[in-house]
Write a structure and sequence with these properties.
Layout: H1 3-12, H2 28-36, H3 41-44, H4 50-53, H5 56-68
Helix pairs in contact: 1-2, 2-5
Length: about 70
């Protein structure tokens, strides 16, 4: 449940979000970082909370960040 460790992990591999606590899977910054990660980020959203999984702005922001990093 250490926020900084999870943030570092998801920035390297977005799917690491799967192993985060329920609270951290509902943390907008962590989910955005996970979903923005360029290799596995597009798959990370399935591990986010229901609330963030349905957040259109978050999804679009993550997509833009992934596109910029290519």
């Amino acid at each position: 449940n250490d926020r900084e460790i999870v943030l570092a992990a998801v920035s390297e591999n977005g799917e690491a979000l799967e192993y985060a606590s329920k609270d951290l899977r509902n943390d907008r910054e962590i989910v955005l970082t996970a979903c923005s990660e360029k290799v596995y980020g597009m798959y990370a959203i399935k591990h986010a909370s229901d609330n963030l999984r349905n957040d259109r702005d978050l999804i679009l922001s993550a997509r833009k960040k992934r596109m910029k990093s290519k």
